[in-house]
Amino acid sequence: MLAKSESQVHAVEPQTVRVMLTGGFSRRYTDGVREFEIQARTVRGVISAMDRLYPGLGEHLEEETSLAVNGVIHEVVYTQIIPADAEVFFIPRIEGG
Question: Considering only CA atoms, which of 50, 67, 70 is closest in space to residue 58?
C-alpha cells in the first residue's frame, strides 16, 4: 500500500467554509438563515452540502445565483477548489434584457 503525500490528502479532505446568502434569498429558501458553516472542498461540494441542509436548495443556487469567493466573483465551475476558511457568497443573478 502506498502512502499519500500531504498534497494528495488535502486535495480530497473537506474543510470548513462559511456560506452566506442574501436576505431575500434566505427568506425564500432557508427560513431567514443567512450564514452557514459547512464542510466542502469544491463549489459542487458547497452546493451539495447546502442541498442536504435544505433539500431542493442546490437547484436554486445553481440556477439563480452567481458566486463570490472571498469577495471575488467567479464563474461557477463546479470543480473549483474552495480555499480553507473561505467565505462563499451566493448572489442573485441580474438578468438583462
Answer: 50
Q: How far is residue 82's CA from residue 61's CA, in Å, rounded to a whole number? A: 16
Among residues 61, 82, 15, the alpha carbon closest in space to that of 52 is found at 61
pLDDT at 94 over 90: no
CB 88 within 8 A of CB 17: yes
Q: Report the Cα 13 to chain-centroid distance in Å.
A: 15
How remote is the C-alpha of 15 from its chain's centroid?
12
Residue 69 vs residues 53, 64, 72, 75: alpha-carbon distances, Å: 20, 17, 5, 10
What is the predicted pLDDT for the residue at 24?
Answer: 92
The total number of residues shown for the chain amounts to 97
